[in-house]
Amino acid sequence: MKKLLKILIIILCTFVHSYADDVKEFQLDVISLGDSALKYFTKNELKNSDEEFFYKNKTFKYYFFNTTKFKPYDGVQVTVKNNDPNYKIYNLDGITWIDNFKECKMKMENVSNDFKKISSSKSIIDKGKHPMDKTGKSTYERISYHFSNGYAEIICFDMSKKLEAEGKYDRFSVTLGLNEFRDFLDNVHYK
Question: Which of 96, 60, 120, 83 is nearest to 170 (CA)?
C-alpha cells in the first residue's frame, strides 16, 4: 500500500510539474500561444488592425488591436510569422494603458502573486531601457517566468515623451511567448 501511495504521489507531482512548465497552458482571456490568430480575428480584421509592425528581416510581424474585447485588457497584440498561412501565434500581449508608474507596479505585483499560485516557475525581476527607444529615455520593469517552451512576462513600460507623441504610451503588459520568438528577438531583431 505504501508503494502504491508513493507511486501515485510521484505521478501526480510529475503531472503538476509538466502542466506548470508549458507556457501554452496559459491564456490571455481566451487566446493561447500556438493557436491560429484566425480563431479570434478574420483576415480582414488582421489587415485592418490598429497597427501592423514587421520585425527586422520581416520574419515575424505583429498585429495590434486597441480593443476591450479581451478582458481585462485595453488592447492585444498577436505576433505571427510573416508568411504563415495559418497565422500561428508565437507571442501574445495583453495591454492596459496606465496613467502612472506606481499604479502599474501595483498591477504587476497583483498579477505576479496570482501567477505564483498557478505556476511552479521562479520569477526573475529586472529593469532597463526599452530597446526600441534609441534615446534611452523609455524604461521598463519586468517580472519574468521561464518554461521549457517559452516565457511569461509582466511588464510596466514608462515611455519617453517623444514616443508617447508617436502613440507608444505608458502601459502595463502581460506577455506570453514561445522560445522561437524570444530567440529571434535576442539574436536577430535587437542585434
Answer: 96
